[in-house]
Amino acid sequence: MSGDFIGSLGESQTFRARVRSDCPVILLTSRRPFDIIRTAAVMFLFINQSTEAFMKVRWWFNFAAGLALLVPVLVSAQQAARTEPDCPKKVKVLVQKIETGLFREYRSYSVVFQPRVLTARTAISGTVTDIKVSDGDLVSEGFVLIMLNEGLEAEAREAEAELERWKKILWNREHWKERSPAAEAQAKTRIEETQARLEEIKARSPQASVSASQTGTVELLVVPGTEVEAGTEVAKVTNPRLKTADLEVDPADLDLFPLGSEIDLGNGMTAVVAGVENNVVRLTVIDPAERLGAEPLSFKLLKREVIDAVVISEDQVLSDDAGDHVFVVNDNQARRADIVVDAQYESQALVTSGLEPKDLLITHHLLSRKTGQLADTLVCLQDGKRVRVMVQDPKSGRFVKFKGELPPSPAIEEEMQEPEKPEVAAEPETVEPAAEEVLREPAVEKEWSPSLGIGAGIGLSMMSDEVFKEVYGSSAVSFDFRLIYAFHPHVEGFIDVAYSTKTGTILGVDAETKIVRAPIALGARYVFEAGGKFKPYVGATAIAFNAKETNDYNPDAGYVTRWGFGLVGGVYYPVAPQVDLFFDMRYGFGTHQIADFEDEAKLDTLRLHLGFVYRFRL
User: Fold this and answer.
1) Is 537 a member of any domain?
2) Is this structure's pTM higher than 0.85?
3) Please, how many CA atoms are within 13 Å of residue 271, restricted to the half-sphere of its CB?
């Protein structure tokens, strides 16, 4: 008995069987394991009842067929397990809190600069009669290279002679005894024609020369005797130190190249936008050292800058048929947020819609909190999926459950649902999290900028000269003012001005004397980063010791200035974002002449300063 049989098992699942008396063969078209088993069972019954030869070896055939069917069933089951993800009821996730920042988008370009080559063209038609230069000669701008039609000079002389002749004829006819109006009119007409021809010759004379339009080396394209038309190229002038490049630019980016603007090429070189035509920008650059070769030169320009922008990594943007989206945490559930990505630059995506600051963006699916293994994709996430936020314990390095209240996402408003009871998983080891787990935000380094500081305070000066001490005492209180300019994160320049007065008694004569001191210090100091709030600094300064001493013997004395130098050290302590307290010590070296004393008094002074500085960000 033999034949082909086709049967149906429902749900579009079919089988085909070919039965012969000597060798039954079964062809199954279904790939699902359950359908394979069901189809095989039906076929066994059919074959067992229809084949006489098969009845004799039924048991052995059933055993062999069972083994043959078991292998594809196991393989299909394994493949199905691989393709379908094993997603838990509650997915462990890592999150990132959305913060606004600065987004800069650049346009990158690459150009090759070549020496500028300008062609010299004839303004009129004619014959090349004289060449003033040779190939390779270096000429300056405006130098005459080629002459055309030197016969114009002879033609002009001939016209001038004819003009003079007709003028004489007209004069004679006007003074003839019998005047002839017709003859006079003819002479006047000839004079006008000759005058017009002479002016035309003179107008063509300057155009008969071809000059260099720039400084450079010459390449000749004609030889003497060449007949040329107006506009013919007769020479090229190349300037190797003035180079140009044509750059094709997207029409949307032409605003980056205003005519006449300067483009920073790096390495101290600047190009100028010399022209813009048909989306092609002509750049010129002066290269006196001829550093620019044939290699492409790359540069980039800032297209736009967005402040307080929501920026995420490009690989965090998910896409499907509905568009770009991400998942955020809201009420312990994953919520889909459809976003609008306005721009992408260097793996960063600018999101203009769909995310708000402080949203908790799901970045990874944590497969194992022990090993820290992360899933390649967020395949287990869908809108409404329950999630568990995990953080990394800084002590053990393992991931632990986040404890605390997660702020609800303002970008997605959903009904609050009762949270499910936490699953209890049996684990050989458990790691207790810290008393309070804090969701760590990525540290954002503040951008440094120069600042101008204005400060004031009080000072105490202690003199070292013994004579000065006997007259004025050893110390004096001063009022201090200072101006600070921080031009580097650790270096600042300063000007300090102090004002103090002191009254003393001149020894031996018992006369009162008064001294006014206004030292001015100009210097720089280096500020250290100590890791805390205190910022120590050290520096050096030049000091102008300005002093005025008046007494009964010298009532109208003026200020006397003596120069010295000093060393300074101190510390800053910030009390507000722009306000610092300071305390420093300065030791100055200098001398001063005291009235009625021949010896100079040492102005070596130890000054203690205490005050505050207010800084303006520039």
Assistant:
1) yes
2) no
3) 28
SS3 content of the chain, % helix, strand, coil (to 5): 20, 45, 35
Q: Are residues 65 and 127 in the same domain?
A: no
Contact yes or no for 580/595 (Cβ under 8 A): no
Tokens of 184: 């006079």
Same domain, 79 and 212: no
CA distance 572 to 514: 35
Q: Are residues 598 and 476 in the same domain?
A: yes
Residues belonging to the chain: 618
**DSSP 3-state assignment of 519?**
coil
Residues 76 and 170 in one domain: no
- Count up the domains in the chain and report the number: 3
What are 326-351's pLDDT values in tens digits?
Answer: 999 988 899 999 999 998 888 889 99
Question: What is the rounded average pLDDT for all residues in the chain?
Answer: 78
- In a 10 Å sphere around its CB, with 0-12 CB exposed, 13-18 middle and 19+ buried, how is residue 74 labelled? exposed
Q: Which two tokens stand for residue 403?
A: 């404890």
Instruction: Report whether 285 contacts 101 (CB < 8 A).
Output: no
Closest by CA position to 273, among listed 254, 255, 260, 286: 260
pLDDT, tens only, 496-529: 999 999 888 876 566 788 888 899 999 999 999 8
Burial of 462 (0-12, 13-18, 19+ CB in 10 A): middle
211 and 146 within one domain: yes
**Chain centre distance of CA 572:** 33
Report the pLDDT value the prediction gives residue 1, as an integer from 0 to 100: 46
- Segments forming the whole domain that contains residue 166: 119-235
Decide which of 83, 111, 137 is a domain's last residue: 83
**What DSSP letter does each residue of 497-526 carry, written as one string?**
EEEEEEEEEETTTTEEEEEEE--EEEEEEE
**154, amino acid identity:** A
Among 36, 66, 83, which residue terminates a domain? 83
By C-alpha distance, which of 277, 239, 278 is closest to 259? 277
Please provide residue 70's backbone torsions phi and psi, each rounded to the nearest 5 degrees: -70, -35
How many other CB atoms are found less than 10 A from the CB of residue 281?
A: 23
